[in-house]
């Protein structure tokens, strides 16, 4: 039961990794800007604003389709979690933090 | 961008920015399309009679009934961002004391001329057909195919002969007879799909030429007794707006 709930949560939230987030934002900006430019140019050359409207809306729909679902190409470089602590869970022992990188400084 | 919901919000947010930017560019692009509007407007007949503003009124006022000929070529006002133009003809006449009171401007006739791409609307103007075309008029299906311009022409062409007014002219004082220095003039509003509403320009702006013609000077005649004029001659035209509230 918990596993099914976990799967449902994962589908609903659709989490992607950090590199995937960068890629998604880049694709969003590129696709929407390009579809806006194409919409204007096609409408202007055919002198029909309805072409602009539908190309703009179509480009937006395509962007939604490409950016919103957690496609596999957004989960290529998953960041691994730290290994679980072996001793007491609530320990504040500095030895547990050895080797951890905090803004370029190694702890320990 | 880590979850589906934030991605939906981000894409939609950026879409609104792009849509706004494209709309702004479209609105500005109309200055590139050249405009050369021209019109010839001539008074056909004007009669002044006494009448009542409504059936139970005890006050009698003078009403002027203006008939006119109009031949316009406003096709260049229809660029890719024009939804429709609202055309109207006004009668302007000076006040009793022109130094203190500005002249009065009264609308005599108006029409909504939609672009060919605009969806059908029952209020839009239907151009009168020539006599050879009356067969089409009788066809009940022709209501939706009826156009705001003559058969075979394009939007912006209006050719009217001896056109009845839509509205009679009366003054706030109730006296309109024998006033001189009146002018009949054509005006328009260009209503775009996106952008600014543009009024008549008689002066050129960049690639937009000013309106050529569309003016006629006249004087209101003396009052005629209503017995000497047939009632049929004083009828007014009813526009498509009479369909308001009834099924289209």
From TrEMBL, chain A:
One of its GO terms (biological process) is signal peptide processing. The chain crosses the membrane at residues 26-46, 53-74. Its main location: endoplasmic reticulum. It is a multi-pass membrane protein. GO terms for cellular component: signal peptidase complex. Keywords: Endoplasmic reticulum, Membrane, Transmembrane, Transmembrane helix. It is found in: Endoplasmic reticulum membrane. Component of the signal peptidase complex (SPC) which catalyzes the cleavage of N-terminal signal sequences from nascent proteins as they are translocated into the lumen of the endoplasmic reticulum. Dispensable for SPC enzymatic activity. Belongs to the SPCS1 family. This is Signal peptidase complex subunit 1. The lineage of its organism: Eukaryota, Fungi, Dikarya, Ascomycota, Pezizomycotina.
From TrEMBL, chain B:
It is a single-pass type II membrane protein. Its main location: endoplasmic reticulum. Residues 134-146 have a biased composition (Basic residues). Essential component of the signal peptidase complex (SPC) which catalyzes the cleavage of N-terminal signal sequences from nascent proteins as they are translocated into the lumen of the endoplasmic reticulum. Essential for the SPC catalytic activity, possibly by stabilizing and positioning the active center of the complex close to the lumenal surface. Essential for viability. Belongs to the SPCS3 family. Residues 131-157, 229-248 are annotated as: Disordered. This is Signal peptidase subunit 3.
